[in-house]
């Protein structure tokens, strides 16, 4: 029984090491002009990835589904109401992440057309979003 516990402990330690390999990229956006902002995830993380996974606040690890430890970690980032987590995936495995502030643009607008699934995947080629400032001063996703 002791050896089973020890093996479980070693496996847990080794699998958690995968989180240490995950690089965090600082969330940034480009002000095109006074009325337009560009959020380009291909510039935020110019490294190797093929899919962007956006995770809104209060999403559980069961809903994220990118590996147990990665999902648990992303769930902790998504606990804050003002943060949307972005995971960069390569062949379905998380390689990096960003914590995206909801101000001045709200990436929740990208997620609005969903039914019951909280997370949304975008191919790398579609991971660029433009926001236009409305008359009320808030930025709206340009469709």
UniProtKB/TrEMBL annotation:
This is Lipoprotein. It comes from Algoriphagus lacus.
């Amino acid at each position: 029984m002791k050896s089973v516990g020890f093996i479980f402990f070693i496996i847990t330690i080794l699998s958690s090491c995968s989180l240490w390999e995950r690089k965090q990229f600082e969330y940034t956006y480009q002000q095109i002009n006074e009325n337009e902002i560009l959020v380009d995830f291909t510039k935020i993380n110019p490294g190797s990835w093929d899919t962007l996974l956006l995770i809104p606040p209060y999403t559980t690890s069961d809903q994220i589904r990118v590996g147990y430890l990665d999902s648990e970690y992303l769930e902790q980032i998504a606990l804050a109401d003002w943060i949307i987590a972005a995971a960069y995936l390569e062949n379905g495995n998380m390689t990096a992440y960003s914590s995206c502030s909801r101000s001045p643009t709200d990436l929740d607008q990208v997620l609005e057309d969903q039914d019951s699934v909280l997370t949304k995947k975008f191919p790398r080629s579609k991971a660029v979003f433009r926001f236009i400032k409305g008359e009320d001063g808030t930025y709206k996703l340009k469709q």
